[in-house]
Amino acid sequence: MALAFNVAKRNFSHNLKEKMGHIISKRQAEVTAFKKQHSGTVIGEVTIGAVMGGMRGLPGMHYETSKLDANEGIAYRGHSLRDVQKKGPTSIPNGEPIPEGVLWLLLTGEFPSASEITSFKEEIFKRGSLTAEQETLISHFPKDMHAMTQLSAGVLMC
Length: 158
What we know:
- The chain is mainly alpha-helical.
- The protein is 58% helix and 6% strand.
- Helix 1 (2-38) packs across helix 5.
- The chain is extended.
């Protein structure tokens, strides 16, 4: 059992780290070239009304992981939500995509293979246990603490 887990651990480390290493180095070069070519390009006009309205409709940053468009809907790494529902890995046939598969898509820009998602889920599960100290601290958060504050503090604690 321990040997099988060590093999799975190496596969996870090898699979995701190698994939991310290639993706990151390629993207760094693309971003550097893009910035060099377009650093002076104007992409919008900012008005006081738009700023006071929460920056709605104004481009404020370049991002690729997810996008919420008023007309197109939600997209993850360029895949529509419907596409993610169809192509994402599921726990049951014709079920909804599992969170681990969507996280893999967000990290890599690709849907995971069966072996990738298996080792990824195993690694996430292995890393998901909390120490007694972490559980005690989290359980002692004030009951009226905002949920996002709890999440942020809990993640920082881990």
